[in-house]
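Hey team,

Filing this mostly as a record. A colleague (T.K.) asked me to run one chain through the structure pipeline before their review meeting, and I want the input and output archived in the tracker in case anyone asks later how it was produced. No errors, nothing strange. Just documentation.

Input sequence:
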Amino acid sequence: MRRIRPDLVVAVLLLAAHTAAVWGHTGVFWGDIGRWSHEVERLALGELPYRDFQWHYPPFGLFVEGLAARVIGTDRTPLSIITTALAAMLVVASVFLSRRALGRHDTALSAIALILSFSFAQTVGAALPLGLYSPAAIVGAVCTAIAAVNFLRSLSNAPGNSVAWMALFCALGVLSKQDFWVPAAYMVGTTVVRSRRLTAAWISGGVTLAGVAGIIAIAGVDILLPLLGGFGHATLAGGQGFPSWERITIDILTLALVGGTVFALASLAKRQLLVKPLLVCGAVAVLAAGIHVTASMQTTLPAPGELSSPTQNNLSYQLKRDNPLLRPAIGWMRERVSRTPIPVSLAPLLLLAVALRWRRLPTPRREFVALTLGLAVALRFRRAFEGTEWFEFVLALPILLAAVELLLAFDEAELRRWRTASVAVLGVLAIWAYAALGRGPGTGRHFAEVTSTLRGPMHWRAGEAHDYAVVLAAVDSLDASRTRPLVAFGFTGGFNYFLKRPNPFPITQDFYFSAFNADSLVEHRPPGLLLIDNHVFKGGSFGAATFALGQWEQPRVPAPYDFYDRPRFERLRTGCSPVPLQGSMFDLYSCP
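Output structure:
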């Protein structure tokens, strides 16, 4: 009987503690978690994505959660149980991946990676076990993690059935979310080239084609091209990962800070100050920081009608009052660095360093590290300069550390000192991430007060709880049977879910990001419709899918709320009567 290692025990205990700390914290009830709960419920009740309601991703993740919800229920407690089980699968897979990447059982590092992952997952708005920010993400991450474990295993001398399992879970990741397409292609392609056999391609391609055939059976072949681009997301918001001079500067600054930390720890491990690398990293960091702060201080308010950049949004308070900009600019730089602790350039540069020192590195370790670094590059490919994704900490961090240890060529004593020091530094980073970005006791986003809802007890901010109570009382006073349909501006799904109101339309988010004809939906307004106007959804912009050499930040393209959704909502509201909502941020209308 195999002995259970402490790294796995600690990881599972961390997940249990995290789950207990964040249970019932969903973010705003009308936000992402409410909307995705609504979509899962629609599938659980027999509707199908693309045909009956909008789903922006490939369908596998939705079917996993939706079919499970059909069995155990669609309120928040059963849905949280489902996603917690998925999170447990991800945690176990990440521990095995760390063991494979590092060649050892590292309890502290596995725990730190999980804390960082939990904390960064919540910057999107919800805690990991409660669904992160879609079934597509959590299911896709689980599949990719299992595929990665088997990919690393396939690089060993005794791969067993790892190639077949890797190919299967790569396909399931592809059928879950677009973020995992490039990692899947890399793992399958690398395996085919190394083995000179098409087994992985046949399995992965066959399962993927079967999934595509299922999509066609549901919604027809015409759905494939819109699905490929996320139903307008690639067209309008496709530039979110593109570089700009501002993003490149932040990436260089973060890379210099990471490099300086690595060389400082290596100096401790080797008991010899690595002067030149430290000076280079320090100089680059100072130069990049100076450029970023100076550029931020040159920012002015946007002209009337002009879309504002992220820097203008961040410094708008000071700009409107003509306040000094030095301290706010430094704060903005720190915030930008904190969102990308793993710079996009780190894995490619480590891979380049391995290639340049190839002949001096031990074999077969050098081949293993080079191939796993390729996986780390693939994991970041889609998000690129947008920032560090939560799953990079559990999937890429062990790979990056293994590459650093190989390149620094420690002896046994130096390696022990390095591991102790690196765990200490990463531990401090994890504590900061939990306090600044996490959700739970000791953080600024832990709400102890319980709000009773139609979907079970929730932990919300006082203002959100008040808005929910006011809206619920108002719509129930108009229709106690809860049969009148409801549509909200922006994200309607969360309102439908938490108010237990039918959604007469296939849209669950907005009109623009949809394969359905918005004008046709508006023309066929159902009788007795209740409308909620959510003024949070106005203005806004995305980075354009271009690298503008003459601009510090990306050119902006407008979000669809003003130019597309608002006119259609106003047509939908024609002839409807306002209903007073006491002290609420929303407007309610009752239609004949």
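Quick notes for T.K.: The first helix runs from residue 6 to 22. Residues 245-338 form one domain.
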